[in-house]
Every structure is written in structure tokens, then in C-alpha cells.
Amino acid sequence: MCRETSRSQTPPLVGEPPGGCDPAEGTDLEYHGDRALAPGLLDLAVNVRVEPHPPWLADAVTTGCARLAAYPDATAATRAVAAHHGRPPGEVLLTAGAAEAFGLLARAVPPGPAVVVHPQFTEPERALRIAGHHVHRHLLGASDGFRLDPATVPADADLVVLGNPTNPTGVLHPVADLVALARPGRVLVVDEAFMDAVPGEPASLGGRGEVPGLVVVRSLTKTWGLAGLRIGYVLAGEPMIAALHLQQPPWSVSTPALAAASACTSERAGAQARVWAVGLDHRREALRQALVARGLRCVPASRGPFLLVAVPGGRDLTGPLRERGIAVRRGDTFPGLGSGWFRVAVRREPEHAALLAAIDAVWRQPAS
Fold first, then answer.
1. Which among 85, 43, 129 is positioned nearest to 322, based on CA atoms?
2. Which domain holds residue 220?
3. pTM, two decimal places
4. Is the pLDDT of residue 8 over 60?
5. Which of 165, 201, 267, 282 has its CA 20 to 30 A from that of 1?
6. How far apart are CA 231 and CA 225, in angstroms?
7. Residues 38, 43, 49, 55: what is their CA dihedral angle, to the nearest 10 degrees?
8. Same domain, 59 and 36
9. pLDDT confidence of 30, banded at 50, 70, 90?
């Protein structure tokens, strides 16, 4: 059983669904956006870039596939990731996506008081609960834009987990607020799966090896459209990396995935990611303005490749949008949100136009 606290008792804004949180047993922590998909639906539910892979990335993966007869060797990829973040290779562990990293962490850290800051990606809490940790949900409030006040996080937590920028809110927490959560004896896990969607990554802690107990989890599957390949990594002190490695099965990361890791942390990849992130900022803002013009509410200042949308009156639009061929991510499977919320991936103008047309059709209809 998890415990829950809210940051603030401030009432929700007029017309905004209340924050709140379902009991642990009432939240489907295994639900992810891909479960909203079906043949014929426009996918705005999954936050993975769907554009064609750049030739250099496709070539790297193809070259990796040519070495499938040999067991994977993570040495070169580990060095590439380490150089990208200015850290020694001993402070890097390649993983089969960020999801594997959360499972390794849950097993490597002795069970004890753990705080998961919600709403956020549910896989960390799920992994912690399976491993026997006592999970405390710390809920951020919609009324203040889901902003974190580090002083409100329970002081007795031996493990704190939060995202930056956070999925599904898109909030980018300041570095100072995150560092304020660190202390000797505490493991601070920051999920930076979407950090490369922020131009220049100004709030990344990937290079901050001096912060006590800090563990940064990164993913290469989002920006580079590699969800099916499963590639991510952990940045932490050498003792933590060693503890995680003991929990990881041999050859966990495939040779093509390792080749992708080297390619996606190169200088060329970084330059292209920054260009893409700047374009994402413009497309996200255009979509936000269009949604707000229709009377919907969006979490302000989202920095992820998505927007979290609130429907006045708490009406659930996911079903009506699905009937019109649009798949968006349900909000009620994120602790702290309800059915009047949905998350929508930022795509390009044609996809946005289809979404807006569907919203015009369903939102103008009276709720049944």
C-alpha cells in the first residue's frame, strides 16, 4: 500500500479537473500509450519520434545487425556515452531502455522508504513496489503548474524518483530544486528520458557526478525513434553502477542497440537533436495555442514532445477522439490525474490539423 501527499491544498482552478490520486490498487501502473493504439488510428498517444531515421543512424544499426553472431560488447558504446557526458566509463551502464534501468535500481537499492514524485512515468513506482520498497506518492498540484518544492518532499526518504522534464506534465524543474533533494545516504533518481527534447539541455544533471547519491536515467528511444530497439543508460557513481551491473543479465543490450548508442551520442547526433528540439518548441507552442483557443487547458511551459491537456468539467475525450480515428494517452492512469486529462504527442501540422478537427467535432457536442 502506498501513501500519498499533495504539495498544496490550494483548490483547483475553475473548470479544471481536480488533482487527487487514486489508491495504489486503483491505478494501472502497467498502462502505457501503446495500449491505446489500433490499426487505422492516428498515433498521438506514444511520445516516440516517428520521422524516418537519419541515414547515419540507419547505417549504424544495419552494421550492428551484421555482427549478430557475436556476443554484444558494450565497451565502445559505454566510452561514447561517457565522453558525451564528460564522465569516466565506470560511471555509465548501458541498458535495454530506461525501463530496464528502473528495474535494476529497484533491485539494487535495499528496500526502504521511497518517494515517487507524481504525476510521472509509472514504471519506476511499479518496479519499486515489485521489489518490496515502501512507496510514498508525492503529488504535485495542477493549480501551481505541477511545480516541485523540494522542501515538501519527505525528509526521511532514502530514495526519491522524479522526471525532468516530467512525463506527462512536460515540466522542466530547475537544477537547483533537484540538487536540493540530494543528501548523503539518499539515492536521488532523475529520469531524463526526454531531456534531449529541450534545446541545449540546460537542466540536465548528466554531467553532475559530484552530487551525492545522484542517478540519472537516460533514453535514446524517444528522440531517435528506437522504442523497438530498446536502448538507454544510467549515469551514476561507480559503486552504484557496479551494484546495477550485478542485477543485469549478461548481454542485456543487443549489438544493434549498442551501435545506436554510439551513433546517437556523437557530435553529429547532438547537433541534429538540437535542431529538432528547436523545431519541436515551435510546433508544441502552435498546438498549445490552438488547444487553448478551443477552451481546453494545457500545462504551461511544457518542454517535452507532448502536451498534457485538461478538459473543463472533467469530461473524458479519449473515447470520442478514438471514435474519430485519433489515439491520445489517457490521463487517469497517471497518479494525481483523472479521466478529464489526456496527453497528446507533438507531431507535425497535418497530424495536428486532424486532431484539432476531431476536437472541434467532439468538444462542441454536449456531454452525454
1. 43
2. 55-268
3. 0.91
4. no
5. 165
6. 11
7. 60
8. no
9. confident
User: Is position 3 within any domain?
Assistant: no
**Dihedral sign of CA atoms 256, 257, 262, 264 in order:** positive
Instruction: Give the helix/strand (H/E) hosting 63.
Output: helix 55-65
3-state class (DSSP) for residue 327: strand
H-run or E-run covering 330: strand 329-330
Q: Is the pLDDT of residue 334 over 70?
A: yes
- Cis before 23? omega within 30: no
* Collapsed DSSP state (helix, strand, coil) of residue 343: strand
- In tens, the pLDDT along 114-124 reads 999 999 999 99
Closest CA to 224 of 36, 78, 51, 86: 51
- pLDDT tens per residue across span 151-165: 999 999 999 999 999
* Residue 307: how many other CB atoms lie within 10 Å: 24
Segment 99-121 mean pLDDT: 96
Contact 117, 161 (CB under 8 A): yes
**192/180 Cα distance (integer angstroms):** 17
Report how far residue 171's alpha carbon sits from residue 303's, in angstroms, rounded to the nearest whole number.
Answer: 6
Shortest CA distance to 219 belongs to which of 187, 252, 260, 159? 260
Report if residue 7 sits inside a domain.
no
- Quote the pLDDT of residue 301: 87
Cα–Cα distances in angstroms (integers) from residue 11 to residues 8, 14, 15, 118, 260, in the given order: 9, 9, 11, 18, 47
Each residue's pLDDT tens digit, 221-245? 999 999 999 999 999 999 999 999 9
For residue 61, what is the domain's CATH number? 3.40.640.10
Query: Is residue 4 in a domain?
Result: no
Give the separation between CA 298 and CA 224, rounded to whole angstroms: 26
Q: Is the CA virtual torsion 79, 81, 87, 89 positive or negative?
A: negative
